[in-house]
Records
---
Amino acid sequence: MSASTVDPADPVFRLHRGGKLAVASTVPLTSREDLSLAYTPGVARVCEAIAADPALADDYTWVSHAVAVVTDGSAVLGLGNIGARAALPVMEGKAVLFKQFADVDAVPICLDTQDVDEIVATVRAIAPSFGGINLEDISAPRCFEVERRLDEMLPIPVFHDDQHGTAIVVLAALRNAATLLHRKLGDLRVTVSGAGAAGVAVTHMLVAGGVDPDRVVVCDSRGVIGRHRTDLTETKAHLAETTNAEGRRGDVAEALRGADVLIGVSGGRIPEAAVAGMAPGGIVFALANPTPEVDPEVAARYAAVVATGRSDYPNQINNVLAFPGVFRGALDARATRITDGMKVAAADAIAGVVEGSLSADAIVPSPLDPRVAPAVAAAVAEAARHDGVARA
């Protein structure tokens, strides 16, 4: 869209004019005394104290409630590789969600580089200003290395939301769908369509949450991932070693034959005939946005529970159910990292919000449900203490 096609009267553009964020002071500046306390000379005493004991930054700066939302604009949802500047409205929106749902102050940082080394070096350099790093919309497979390296080198939580936020909410939804259908997670045969950032994380999270990896089959654009494949990246090769115990080969239709669950995180269309090959009364999560891999109405012909990533259908699998509470809990516990136990705890908390009122059209809470973030935060903080990564 060119500047000449922007309609100032369009409510979308009216809302975004001037951006969606501003900086607000938390202290008064109405007198000379206020100024001397907030800035010079008073601030020097706080600086000296932190220089002597860096841990005091948690108490005397904003890092206890501040997160950097970092992207290179290479994989923006529904838009692809649009670059740093064009990604900024999305990162601003992410920051708004952090503040609204969990009172976390988030700063959008769009990096004008897609080089892994440069991204890692830049984030490492700015990390002292924040209590956590939320990586966003960085394309696979680079996102795996960026997160791994930063997680190893930084003493604060690093969380790639496109991977782990999606995975947490999928696990929560699958827990409740299985409960509704009187099934056990360990008995479900699961097909994951998509082996990018979300697909890999979803597979890992489901296994951490109780799904039998031998009963999981993952597909990428070339078909079923298994030990027969010689064209796999390191990440996909690990999937081949740990899933698909039956040694299935072929396309997604073969992967879905007799499956109880389809989780679509690929963006590619899945034929109705392939869905028809699933076991009856199953579960379909078609999460590509804006166009699900399977039309929800088609999926409902074969599945007992259907979810999408869209807000205009029931059971929206939305990352906003996870990331605000995850970071709020991690910050409250002053966690040094986010563990699998913390992610599973987050999924359990999301599922628990609606466990007493489950129906086929309500297996997860609404993204606007005010109970979600506090429940997730409390569960994540407790799990951080249990896992030994909490400093508070």
---
Amino acid sequence: MHPGHTMLPMTQERDELDNLVRKRLRALRVAQGWSLEELAVRANVSQSTLSRIENGQRRLALDQLVTLARALDTSLDQLVESASDDVVTSPVIDGAHGLMRWPVKGDPGMTVVRQRMTEPPPDNLARMRAHPGREWLVVLSGTAILLLGQRRFRVETNQAAEFPTMLPHAIGAEGGPCEILGIFDRDARRSHQRDTAD
């Protein structure tokens, strides 16, 4: 053990996190296309030390993790966040409105909504919505129609559209059901939440 290193306490949970951190270190290094030697030089640690850190033969030291995180262009927080934070597997199903929605973990201001549509969009401006924000539309199956003011866009399966929501807009299906992902920024999300609460 190198003198002066602050050691992380080792519990079963810590062991699991240790293993996760080691895998992240190696994955980030490989993603950069760096050999052990290249990362060792960038982080100013010996190649043998780095090898032992990655393969679990050396305990993780906080000062080394800070240095390695910086060399790998990440942060200590991201390197050591718990495994439970990595995957979000429980979007909220809103049965009353036929929606599945969940916040985008990387940006709490964003929300994704999956929706099946069967009706065409309203054909008059009075029934379109306008509100602050920006939306993205991805068509998973079928064909969607996006109305923006006086303009009409066909968005086919595997196509996407991005638009400012201050323009009066409406979305519907053409020629049968379609399934879409709607992605809303913070302002657009607030407006849609008010709509579905009515």
---
Amino acid sequence: MTDLSLYKKVNINSSEGFLKPIFWYIVNHLFFTHHFFPFYGVKKVLLVAFGARIGKGFVIKPAVNIKYPWKLEVGDDVWIGENVWIDNIGNVTIGSNVCISQGAMLLTGNHNYKSETFDLMIKPIVVEEGVWIGAKATIAPGVTCKAYSVLSMGSVLTGDMENHSIYQGNPAVRKKERTFNS
């Protein structure tokens, strides 16, 4: 039986102090989560100022919600589409040449439904080189999307993907190999 009165709040950002998360919340609200601010360069500068590591050629569309930029690492030539939610209470690492399409969700935290105290569980997400995450797809905590794999739109990924593979469904399963035209 779950008893939420026993839940022990975890201080996820104890090393970041008190003010940094508050300032980020304000900046995220003003410059990232709204549709009216599409300037990639300014967004990159703000993310880096808050501790994100961002490569060159970074494209981030409007209405993207990033929980904690200091837990985000992004390679070169990465595209992040409208309404993406990177709920990174744990680390998220995104390799180069990755496309994360509209409305996708990357979730690094979950609760232990088997625990009476509903404990928070945090696991990182790794998205390797050349991966494409389809629109409205969801990635669960602790998952690695191996190089050049594809997660089809609307799919829910709860386990690691193989290299050069296409995954689809809820839960997502491998459907076929991803091949490239020469």
